[in-house]
Amino acid sequence: MAEVRKFTKRLSKPGTAAELRQSVSEAVRSSVVLEKTKVVEPLDYENVIAQRKTQIYSDPLRDLLMFPMEDISISVISRQRRTVQSTVPEDGEKRAQSLFVKECIKTYNNGPAAVSLMVFPLFQDSSSLCSQKGGVIKQGWLHKANVNSTITVTMKVFKRRYFYLTQLPDGSYILNSYKDEKNSKESKGCIYLDACIDVVQCPKMRRHAFELKMLDKYSHYLAAETEQEMEEWLITLKKIIQINTDSLVQEKKETVEISQGQNFFNNSLDFSGIEPDIKPFEEKCNKRFLVNCHDLMFNILGQVGDNAKGPPTNVEPFFINLALFDVKNNCKISADFHVDLNPPSVREMLWGPSSQPATDGTPRGSSPESFIHGIKNLTEGIFFQGIFSVTNPHPEIFLVARIEKVLQGNITHCAEPYIKNSDPAKTAQKVHRTAKQVCSRLGQYRMPFAWAARPIFKDIQGSLDVDGRFSPLYKQDSSKLSNEDILKLLSEYKKNVLTIVASLPVFFSAIDCITSSYVPLKPFEKNCQNITVEVEEFVPEMTKYCYPFTIYKNHLYVYPLQLKYDSQKTFAKARNIAVCVEFRDSDESDASALKCIYGKPAGSVFTTNAYAVVSHHNQNPEFYDEIKIELPIHLHQKHHLLFTFYHVSCEINTKGTTKKQDTVETPVGFAWVPLLKDGRIITLEQQLPVSANLPPGYIYSKGRLFSPIIPYWVDGAKPLLKIKSHLESTIYTQCLHAMEIQVMIQFLPVILMQLFQVLTNMTHEDDVPFNCTMVLLHIVSKCHEEGLDNYLRSFIKYSFRPEKPSAPQAQLIHETLATTMIAILKQSADFLAINKLLKYSWFFFEIIAKSMATYLLEENKIKLPRGQRFSEAYHHVLHSLLLAIIPHVTIRYAEIPDESRNVNYSLASFLKRCLTLMDRGFVFNLINDYISGFSPKDPKVLAEYKFEFLQTICNHEHYIPLNLPMAFAKPKLQRVQDSNLEYSLSDEYCKHHFLVGLLLRETSIALQDNYEIRYTAISVIKNLLIKHAFDTRYQHKVRMFVSSPVSHYLIFVLQTRQSSTRSSVSQYNRLDQYEIRSLLMCYLYIVKMISEGSTTTEANIFHQALLEGNTATEVSLTVLDTISFFTQCFKSQLLNNDGHNPLMKKVFDIHLAFLKNGQSEVSLKHVRNKSLRLRVALLLGKKDQGNRISKPQLMKPLNLAFVNINTEQQNTERGPDHEFLKSARAFNFILLFLFFFFFPQ
């Protein structure tokens, strides 16, 4: 049973409460003055816990005294891949030779690892931490409809799948489908039931069918095999939806309760102790849309080949290239998406002599492939659907379709039948006959033909313009083929005149999908017929669009731009020039091209070469083709691009003569460019000379003085060929400077891990750790400047995994990093580096904390006593680091306000984590040393720093065990000596309950200061109470919680402020409304918790009644004293208009409200005696002074008369004490007589 407070015991003696409170106030003020300059050393926490181990374990509320046994843990989280399999090629890590590439591949293969400090945030149900959920709820065969939204409901195709309804460990439900009962294979699809809002039957769609309606107005359609199975599924799914709904309602209810708690505590909950939600690195999901190409129909149609009975088709093959162009930023923002909509009968026209399929069925220049990433149908290379993505959507983004056909001649001549067509049937026969001859001879060469465009977005929010249509097909101008020309035409594309009559419907609607590297995405049906491919987006090279890479990708896009051959004299015929691009790894005479170029539709997936479009009779041709290359993992100096130029003969024997025709291809030059320069891939626009021959060792022959074979340069080795390339790689960089911010962000995990490895493995070079830390500081500061510090937090939590140093004498990361931080802070020359380290110190402290936690777990040091976990040398390093930080906070705070505030908070957060990891007594000493660096005479800024530091420390998830809420026995003599100081912060109290004692001591001093500092101190106390009020771990342990040092403090503060306010108004600033309300709210909350926490034994009932009576007495006296004090301070306002004013009425209203509630007998006796003394004082004052007493002077006695009158009425109902009522009546009569005697009017 808690001891009844001393002054409440003595309330039975009337008139002694005020005197006792006065004595307490004086004792408190004197004790505060003593404590200002006194430093109290904390106790040895670990020693106390060891000595009282038996007592703690036998305590029924030992959870309040102990840390959890497993307070930290490490968990490797499986990487959430979008793809069915890893994007890294098989044996990729073995094939890599570059250290940087190896580390990249290792990063993309390994899952993120998180070291979890078992933090108990607000509003979390601790029971959920140990609850185990999961398991199969229901399973069986169902028919699932495809999810193509372009197909009407009644035409959906159903596939039979075996479904597992499973509850995940987090309590959510998922519906997985498999090909058969064996769920060991990859899932064919999944439905997350969290987003399901209803399930209804669909009898019109299919027998026993039902619909799962989702939140995003999307639906999944399933069908059972029998009516009984359908009913069972419906019942089960409805139960789950109801569970999800109830859970949502409960969450809303808890939110309302939290909101009510916020209102109770003045709507100022503080969540500074809650860590931000940090997610692992993931691919950015930009605005995506699907393009589905159905057909391309011109106005010249006919029957082709064996398709005599089928619908008419185009009479010659056409090919479509789709890409996104940004007119606003004047650039192309996507790769090309190649589409072949030719029917099989038209596609057969291409199998001429020059492109006749080999015996294996693949075109020339390619070889057969069985499966690509396990996908059989991918070998056909025909895609009709592509997913485009846009990072920065706006209305000036266009989807451009470039139409090509087989090389035939001049564009104007080839387009004339489609523009001027008087006899469609006759024209179709003529065009088809010519096309058949051309395709058989020149089937692999393409020529530009037409183009069309359409806008994509309606607004900058990314709303798709699904109702838009492609423009008419415009005839391609042979002099305007480049991307720059297309961008100019797009700005005024409606002004083009020559159009070709055609229809190109494109539908925006996704399904079995593969990445731009042809890796299948989840879910994927291996035998699916229609495959959707993701089209590469060329993200703007701006920092805000950068993100750390998480998947393997290694593409190079090559663009031949222009060839200037009008002045060359080497070749007689060089007009219809075709460019063949190859990628080689050797320049020897017998070297061959690598098969790594992505093929076009109807061909092989990968080929050895690619041709650009041919401009007829043009000696300075322009090109717009895009050649996509899958780069090998390891690149060396011999890897290069080889460009071979051919003159293509377009002559066709249309008259059936026996005249010998020219060969199709005639080589007219070679050009090459090495891929690497200084170890990096060159992606700038380049001008290359052209050679007439290709000698062995040609790559670097231009720079050799003594070369056995010198290339024969065309036109004096002038730069005749213009090319450019674009790199989309996650293992190589195209940036010339590796420290540019874009590169740092993209390869952030790899770069940081490499730096940390260097930091710990270099032991002999003194400058290496220092310089390495400076590089880390540069990267961290750049990330903050760009607003991308969230990536740093993700790295620390999921990607940073400290490795054990390879050198035997090397230090661990936390040891080395702390040492180098001290070195940076102590140097006096580089203040810029010091300020950056202070400002971004959180990163280094978090790295140190995770390294410490990982070290304890991996070295199995976690089971050792805390004093033995870390060496004395490391303790000394941390102490030195703290001493190095203190002057930058307490002295330079005005010079560097942001930096000092940041390091103050970061240091507090770090020490809070250290309380979980190491010797808590040592950490208490660090905290004490830091607080000792502050002074009571500090300015307001430093006072705020001090309380921010204390609040962060006190937000520790095990704050109550850290304060040791247990009794510390004292000798009897000491208990007698301390009896008069029960409300003082003694040295013993602050030593045994260190954190709360430190907070109370600093708050006591702050209450004597100005408003801002008082406000900060009171807010810390209130937020601390709020934090524990909502902590569900203590919801059944309220009594123990209230008896903790925190609740003791509140009563102490209230008594201190109350007594000091009465006794010396001039010494203390007046509390404003917020301060009074905050303190009273905290006080009332503690009273409420005391009431709820009591047990029902007879002794406790008696004690509870006594407490309630004493509390009621205290409240009544406080109210009366407050009103008395108010009338003294506002006497002139109350006397205004002879007391007839709103303020006087308000005072009487408060009196009447006070009288409406029954008061304790002790309180009423105290009121009666005080009133009688006032009556005598009034009479003596009139007799001695002869002065007329004003009406306001009798307001208080009159009020006390009302008190006694009301008391008489209440006590009459309860069985009155007649002697008491008699004296009360007499007193009231005398008081009223005096009133009318002095004021007869």
From TrEMBL:
Annotated GO biological processes are: marginal zone B cell differentiation; positive regulation of filopodium assembly; small GTPase-mediated signal transduction
- Annotated ranges, domain C2 DOCK-type: 553-728
- PROSITE patterns, from UniProt? C2_DOCK, PH_DOMAIN
Instruction: Give the signal peptide, or none.
Output: none
Which segments constitute the PH domain?
Answer: 135-242
Listed GO MF terms: guanyl-nucleotide exchange factor activity
Species for this entry: Bos mutus grunniens
SUPFAM superfamilies in alphabetical order: PH domain-like (SSF50729)
Origin organism lineage: Eukaryota, Metazoa, Chordata, Craniata, Vertebrata
Top-level lineage group = Eukaryota
**Annotated family:** Belongs to the DOCK family.
Which named protein is this?
Dedicator of cytokinesis 11
User: What PANTHER family would the database entry show?
Assistant: DEDICATOR OF CYTOKINESIS DOCK, DEDICATOR OF CYTOKINESIS PROTEIN 11
Q: Which Pfam families does the entry link to?
A: DOCK-C2, DOCK_C-D_N, PH
Cross-referenced InterPro entries: C2_Dock-D, C2_DOCK-type_domain, C2_domain_sf, DOCK, DOCK_C/D_N, PH-like_dom_sf, PH_domain
